[in-house]
Amino acid sequence: MTSEAARPDTRPRPGPPPRLNEPLPARARARRDEPWWLRHLRRGMARGYRPPASWTVPVRHVLPRTGGTAGTPDGTDGTGETDGTDGTGAGARGAAAVLSAGVRPALALVAPTCVSRGTLQEQEDRLDALLDQLAATKAAHPETPVALFLGMQWADAGEEREALRRLRELVARARARQPRLPVCGLSLPGPGKPRTLNAAIEVAELLGCVGVAWVDDDVTPADGCLARMVRDFLAAGCRGAVGATKVPHTKQYATSRLLARAKAVAAPAVNYPHGCCILVATDVVSGGMPGRYVSDDGYVCFRLLDARLPDPLAHLRLVPDARCHYFVAGPAGETRRRIRRLLLNHLVDLADWPLPAARYYFRHVLFSGLWPLTGFDGSRGVRHGARKAAIKWLYFAWFASVGAELYLRGLAGRPLRRIEWAPYSAVRTPSPADQERR
Description:
By secondary structure, this protein is of the alpha/beta class. It is built from 12 helices and 10 strands. The protein has helices at residues 36-47, 90-99, 120-140, 157-177, 193-207, 225-235, 254-266, 296-304, 332-352, 355-366, 382-412, 432-436; strands at 60-62, 81-83, 107-114, 146-154, 183-189, 211-215, 219-221, 241-250, 277-281, 316-328.
């Protein structure tokens, strides 16, 4: 009989936890205190979007082939996989039983992708980079073990077989490079990153992880990025969310260069952690993200934004020395669809969440500098402030037109059933040479 090794103490430290906001139903009592015109507008937009309530889909958990046999307590089928298709969560429990052998993980790192987002070789390269991040994190924080979840979404039966094949290769590769690393593959139908995140969150909660991190497949974390995020997360008592500071790079497309210049002036909503590289306290995403919210970072932001505090974003912290590199935009058509998707996400959040949080987000995050509707930004001179206001007004015009569509759909009883995913056709992360050319 073996005894389980002692688990490091990474429990949240004493002190009041962050106040977590909850979305408001269209006819919630809390809306009655809002000005009638604003309540009517927000309710109309909320009714204009009515997707499925849940992201839940069948999940296949792919584990290292040292797993048990059929009927064993770890719940595996003898091939190193567990099947969650019965809807009981047995797959998640079986995966948690395998991953908790020895020292239980304190944090979970999720790497979501899908079969169509690249070749196996490209996904192996991204895995190797993540393993380097995990090795640096282990060296810096040996008392805080991390479990790795590799998400692979598929679109049809052929892709499902390929997803399982790739996950077996990737899980074996991770275990070969870091034999003591708890690693689990997640095969599930797409699209929708929250589906993968929710599958990983379910297992992470069973493991008792205090935090869940995820890194998108189109960003390149700089050396030591994850270790520095973990450092700040632990220093904050394992509460709230921390995120990497994003470093933009341009592609060969004119839209990429144009948007990069506009963002340099307008300073868009980048002053809180974004979902491309983030670490979140598990209680913030407990039970998974609802199917209504396509934007993972928007959901985390509105859960933690507290307008009563002197700094409403106090629980949403960027780590200055933890950096991740990404490309701005892509082809014009794909960029237009992606911006529309972002606007819909903003509008749904502004319609659903408590008014104090929505008002702060509108005035100080999304449309800061939209003079005279919000304050004038004279921090870099009058000329810069005027250019910022002009760009914000162009963006606001697009925002208002999409908002009007949602509102009219709500009035007509013809709600939007889903927000279309808008990935870029070519996934390429910034290389070291790209990073030097900033």
